[in-house]
Inverse folding.
């Protein structure tokens, strides 16, 4: 069963079409990743799901109910641009949002979440005293304090250090295990690859990818060579059958031209340098993203 | 509704628990009473420095009279009988000759005034007693710094006219003592209306209406409601703008609808204003009930109306302010919009005096029925000793009710459309579009 059903939704700002005829179904209990370049329409889509913006055309159903004009229940939302009442005490703030979301045993629940995120001793401090990472954790707490059925997180990991990002990732997975559906937008492709059951990519307001990672990669085929050589990047210049090379420093990712023979490419490389590692694989999500989002698929190598 | 209540609670606590609230609670009555108190205090602080005034007398009589009268005043009227202390400045008048170059003489005398050598000088025209056709010759001109305000000018005018009148009467050959009664002045006293005492059934004379009551009660009422609006509705502009620019708004919108958000803010403001008004009015009445001889009657009948008007005013102006706040991205935007937005509250302040003086004029009636002005102006009219026909406040309430519903509805639609918009502040036309399209 789908928890969210978007049918042909469109949103226009002036003459700019922010979201163009978008149809998307999010199955219950899944983790759905929203990716796309800046300004592609992710946040507008999320705001329409949240009933903060109304679409110009199309239907939105959340939990089977038509949305426009109605109250959205049992949804946790962490917007991309987020702020907290700086003069409130941390625990009072958590309790305020908990009360708004109808949480029972408010005091105990607030303590529980503070403890989970190692913030117990900050409960009586004012929000303005928190570091950025700590206030991000508080923002996450107020989003999920009522264990909502649907959790929508717009860039939940931006600005977090790896330790805090890991803590939040773990909590997201736990919430999914308890039955919540999670939608999050991110610019970190490796996070999307590792965490999401489904990935949706929007570009210039239109859906360009939608499905599991495997199904998306399958569309692009095994056209990528991941190599590690002694000479590195310099050995990979002017190779026949190569469309593009992504340099990651220690390893390079080679995107082959359609119908190029991977064995031929390998022998060309071997003629120039010693190959340490060689793998034929599907393109990474990062590569797929760049292929779609680049202004044009130019031939210049990186 | 429950969510609105939670928002109201937070707003209320956030407002009343601040030091700013306590300070303004104390400061406002001080500021309000301050002007009045300063006036009363300073009135007793009379300047005791003697004033030398030179007289250029072309009438050949008024000048000497002023000198003599001033001498009499200095000897008899400026010493307090009980304490024996001087309670006013002596007036030292001295007649001097007019010089041939009168303009140069006036300039020289003016310099002496500027040098604080003398206080001022008077030029008395030659024909003041028997005015001819040349009006320039019948004038008394007093030259001094701030001459229009000083009470010396009034004193010179009074005394000169005493002499002029006496001279004219005696020139007609009448006996001055007989004529005196011709000039006896009879004042018209102000009295309220006669009514029936509800306990005894007797017809009772109304209290003598005094100017203090006619002015002070409406003035205090007006100032009080004005301050309540300034403390609770106006700050919503800034508060909503801040919640928008600090990105608190969108987080809240994850849990509440824009409509609940705005209503929570407005009703929170209302709760704050009711608390403040309760404290002030409670305090005022407690103080007044302890005072034996109040200079005016306590307007108990206006009090319920005060709260009715306060509630409407805060909800009405509050919704407008909150919705305008939602269109602002930073404090510069808010500053630009604040003054025009405050006009409906400032205009009644300018209209207060004419309405107190003439509460039953048709202008007063219609302007107080204009819904944005009703809370302040109808209250002012009802606070005067004049009885306003009951249909007027009732019609006022109906008008306010309709206008308030409209303001909240339109405000809600602007708020909903603007609260997460960034970039340029929407123009007036765009806001109208938001109201129509929603």
């Amino acid at each position: 069963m789908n928890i969210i059903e978007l049918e042909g939704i469109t949103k226009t700002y002036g003459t700019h079409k922010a979201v163009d005829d978008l149809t998307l179904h999010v199955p219950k209990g899944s983790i759905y990743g929203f990716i796309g370049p800046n300004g592609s329409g992710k946040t507008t889509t999320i705001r329409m799901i949240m009933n903060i913006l109304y679409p110009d055309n199309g239907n939105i159903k959340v939990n089977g109910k038509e949305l426009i004009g109605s109250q959205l229940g049992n949804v946790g939302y962490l917007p991309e641009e987020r702020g907290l009442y700086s003069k409130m005490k941390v625990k009072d703030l958590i309790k305020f949002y908990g009360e708004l979301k109808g949480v029972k045993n408010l005091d105990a629940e607030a303590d529980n979440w503070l403890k989970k995120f190692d913030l117990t001793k900050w409960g009586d401090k004012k929000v303005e005293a928190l570091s950025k990472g700590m206030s991000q954790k508080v923002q996450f707490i107020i989003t999920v304090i009522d264990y909502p059925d649907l959790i929508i997180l717009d860039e939940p990991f931006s600005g977090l250090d790896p330790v805090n990002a890991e803590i939040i990732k773990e909590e997201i997975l736990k919430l999914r295990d308890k039955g919540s559906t999670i939608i999050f937008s991110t610019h970190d492709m490796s996070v999307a690859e590792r965490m999401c059951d489904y990935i949706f990519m929007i570009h210039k307001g239109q859906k360009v990818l939608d499905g599991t990672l495997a199904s998306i990669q399958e569309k692009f085929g095994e056209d990528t060579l991941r190599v590690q050589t002694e000479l590195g990047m310099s050995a990979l210049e002017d190779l026949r059958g190569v469309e593009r090379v992504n340099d990651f420093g220690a390893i390079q990712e080679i995107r082959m031209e359609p119908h190029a023979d991977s064995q031929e490419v390998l022998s060309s490389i071997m003629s120039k340098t010693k190959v340490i590692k060689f793998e034929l694989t599907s393109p990474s999500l990062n590569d797929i993203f760049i292929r779609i989002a680049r202004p044009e698929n130019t031939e210049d190598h990186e | 509704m429950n969510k609105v209540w939670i928002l109201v609670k937070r707003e209320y606590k956030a407002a009343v628990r601040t030091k700013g609230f306590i300070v303004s609670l104390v400061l406002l009555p001080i500021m309000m009473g301050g002007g009045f108190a300063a006036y009363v205090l300073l009135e007793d602080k009379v300047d005791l420095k003697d004033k030398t005034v030179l007289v250029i007398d072309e009438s050949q009589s008024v000048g000497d009279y002023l000198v003599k009268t001033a001498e009499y005043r200095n000897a008899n009227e400026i010493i307090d009988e009980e304490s024996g202390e001087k309670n006013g400045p002596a007036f030292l008048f001295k007649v001097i000759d007019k010089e041939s170059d009168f303009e140069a003489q006036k300039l020289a005398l003016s310099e002496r005034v500027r040098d604080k050598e003398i206080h001022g000088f008077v030029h008395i025209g030659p024909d003041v007693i028997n005015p001819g056709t040349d009006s320039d010759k019948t004038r008394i001109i007093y030259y001094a710094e701030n001459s229009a305000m000083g009470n010396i000018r009034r004193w010179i005018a009074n005394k000169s006219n005493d002499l002029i009148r006496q001279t004219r009467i005696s020139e007609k050959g009448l006996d001055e003592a007989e004529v005196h009664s011709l000039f006896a002045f009879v004042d018209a006293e102000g009295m309220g209306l006669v009514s029936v005492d509800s306990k005894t059934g007797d017809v009772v004379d109304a209290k003598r209406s005094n100017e203090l009551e006619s002015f002070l009660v409406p003035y205090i009422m007006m100032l009080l409601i004005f301050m309540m609006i300034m403390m609770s509705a106006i700050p919503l502009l800034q508060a909503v703008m801040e919640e928008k620019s600090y990105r608190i708004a969108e987080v809240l919108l994850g849990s509440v609808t824009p409509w609940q958000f705005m209503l929570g803010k407005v009703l929170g403001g209302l709760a704050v204003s009711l608390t403040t008004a309760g404290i002030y009015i409670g305090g005022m009445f407690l103080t007044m009930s302890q005072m034996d001889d109040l200079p005016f009657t306590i307007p108990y009948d206006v009090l319920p109306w005060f709260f009715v008007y306060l509630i409407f005013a805060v909800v009405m102006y509050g919704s407008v302010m909150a919705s305008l706040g939602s269109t602002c991205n930073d404090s510069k935007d808010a500053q630009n919009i604040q003054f025009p937005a405050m006009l409906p509250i400032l205009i009644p302040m300018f209209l207060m005096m004419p309405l107190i003086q003439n509460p039953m004029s048709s202008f007063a009636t219609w302007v107080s029925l204009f819904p944005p002005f009703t809370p302040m102006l109808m209250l002012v009219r009802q606070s005067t000793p004049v009885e306003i026909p009951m249909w007027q406040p009732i019609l006022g309430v109906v008008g306010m009710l309709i206008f308030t519903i409209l303001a909240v509805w339109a405000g809600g639609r602007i708020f909903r459309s603007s609260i997460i918009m960034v970039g340029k502040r929407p123009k007036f036309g765009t806001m109208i579009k938001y109201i129509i399209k929603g």
About this structure: The first strand of chain B starts at residue 51 and ends at 57. The interface with chain A takes residues 3, 6-7, 10, 14, 18, 243, 246-248, 250-251, 253-258, 420 of chain B (CB under 8 Å). The beta strands of chain B are 51-57, 91-96, 120-124, 140-144, 195-196, 203-204.
